[in-house]
Each structure stands twice: as structure tokens, then as C-alpha cells.
Amino acid sequence: MSISFTVSGHAKPKGSMRAFVPKGWKRPILTNASLATKTWEQSVRLASQEFANTYTTDPVRVRLRFSLPRPKSLSSRASRAHVKRPDLDKLIRACLDAMTGVLWADDSQVYSLSATKCYALADKAPHVTITVSAKLYDDKHGDNRHSSNRSVP
To answer: What is the model's pTM?
Structure first.
């Protein structure tokens, strides 16, 4: 099983969670610091729901390619590598959290993750391209199929 889809829009990072205990309560309430993150996660969740029939509890491989807005001041010949905020790990977290419960049961199922962030081409809108593949294990050989069986003294 392998699926790939694109979510249009400016990717938002998953910020830090804030906890507070309302007066008279015994348990804290966790909130996200950014409303924009909720909107972005809803967009990712909505796009991934098209593939909800592929829901799995098996290990999955995820590839994320973020194309972020290109500043007008950046030359078209300049590098496309995006080395400014937002942090890549926070962009990843927002997407993985949005797909949890839709494509997989828990994001701990992600055993392989590859992600890049770059500036979108001048004529392209910002977006993220997401590819999810299920890992098909071979019980007979396991994951050590290509490794040497020699012991090292």
C-alpha cells in the first residue's frame, strides 16, 4: 500500500503545548499556542480522509516535502533550500498528528521518516506533498535480510 497526496496552503508548525488548570479543576487543560496550526492540521486531515480506506495498524514509512512561500526579495537563481523558521521537526509533527486516527492508529507506527523543506517555485503556491507506504515485513527473514551473519570478536 502506498498513497501520495498534496495539501495546498502555507504549512504551519506544531508549536509548544500550554497547560493550565482552571479555577476549581483538578486536571490541566492542554492548548496549542497557535490557531493557525489547528487550521493547517484540519486541511491535512481533510486531504488524508480521502485515503481513510487504507487505515492501518502496520508500520508505515512517511515522506514529506514542504514547499514554503518564496519571499519576493529572493532571487530566482538563489538556493531553494529553506533554512529559516519554521523548524522542520515542528512542521512534521503537525502533519503526523493530523493523520493519526485517519491513516494509522498512532504515529508511533512511523518507522521511517524523510522530510525536506524548500522554497516553492516562483509560479507555484505553497504546499506539502505527503507519501505514506505500509511496510510489508517478511517474517522468515526479518529486517536483517541484507546484513552479514558473521560475529565480530
So the answer is: 0.80
